[in-house]
Amino acid sequence: MGKEIINVDVAVLIIAALIWVLTGYLAYWNDLESFQKWVPAPMRK
To answer: What does the CA dihedral 18, 24, 29, 35 come to, rounded to 10 degrees?
Structure first.
């Protein structure tokens, strides 16, 4: 019984880590995309 619980715990942790990595990856690229449009104040029209 103990090993089954550990296997379920490991699976849940792996799924949570994958969700966390995917969310972080998408947020990182979204920030980079918004920074491409940034212009320094002296160069703005």
So the answer is: 180
pLDDT digits (tens, 9 = 90+) for 1-45: 688 889 999 999 999 999 999 999 999 999 998 888 888 999 988
Q: Is the pTM for the entire model greater than 0.70? A: no
Q: How far is CA 14 from CA 9, 21, 33, 38, 40, in A?
A: 9, 10, 29, 37, 42
Torsion of the alpha carbons at 21, 23, 26 and 32, rounded to the nearest 10: -90
